């Protein structure tokens, strides 16, 4: 396999995977464009919303995947980001705080049932998962569990790792702009980076290039994953776009802002644009890019496949 693997795509090229009116043609066009731009496959990401809407959106993606071999070849599965996220300002990011909830096995089972085998990854906040019961339940079900939008303590993180946590979602984002200088979620995750894969949005906006260089330099290379966290604006340039019913404004420099302008709302950059940042400002080699954008994400997806067998 030569193309890139993107574990977090909310939408692309004008199409929002969190729309309630997704058509086959729209998603086929996204898959074709991704392939032309070098991305072999993705996880379509459904973000926090009212539970009934999340279930409908997951089920619609399943219909599309099962109904088209071309879509199935591109969309390897679904990444459910939420609703078990920390609702506090900053940590919740672009997700609606009113729809966040403590981790619950019955809700989890509804999400998995809607996914009909296509849910491959779930991002939750470990501190919202009492005793890591949902993390263990998901792991036992063959789902890759990621932490994110979280202010987990070291104890929370370690408990979740012990119960199967495999990834931390977009470190440096999904947290407030101001944090305690030492004891904060970024430092805690770095402290366990030998036990956990960690994803980054490498657009130069979500994490400045100099900070990204610092992070990448201290995490084992086999534990680094690059994701786009792309939204419908990705690949289209400046303008106003939609993400799960909210308006996102993309600046001339490519940063995607929530309408309130206090935080980013997904990403408008493509993998090719991120490669330019990684090879240019960060100084990453082609070999590292292949490991972080193909080998390591495939390892995570292989965990799911191995648990399914």
| Oligomeric description of these chains | single chain
Number of domains: 1
Largest sheet: 8 strands, parallel
Q: What does the radius of gyration come to?
A: 17 Å
Written as H for each helix and E for each strand, in order along the chain, the element string is EEEHEHHEHEHEHEHEHEEEEHH
CATH architecture: Alpha-Beta Barrel
The 3D shape can be described as globular
How many strand units? Answer: 13
* Helical/strand content category: alpha/beta
Percent helix among the residues? 25-40%
Number of helices: 10
List the defining traits of the structure above.
10 helices, about 300 residues, 3-stranded antiparallel β-sheet, alpha/beta, TIM Barrel, 8-stranded parallel β-sheet, about 40% helix
Q: Care to describe what's here?
A:
- There is one protein chain.
- This protein is α/β, with parallel strands linked by helices.
- The chain has one domain (4-308): Metal-dependent hydrolases (TIM Barrel, Alpha-Beta Barrel).
- The protein is built from ten helices and 13 strands.
- The protein has an eight-stranded parallel β-sheet with strand order 1-4-5-6-7-8-9-10. Strands 11-12-13 form a three-stranded antiparallel β-sheet, with no helix packed on it. It has a two-stranded antiparallel sheet with strand order 2-3.
- A hairpin with a 2-residue loop joins strand 2 and strand 3.
- The two termini are 22 Å apart.
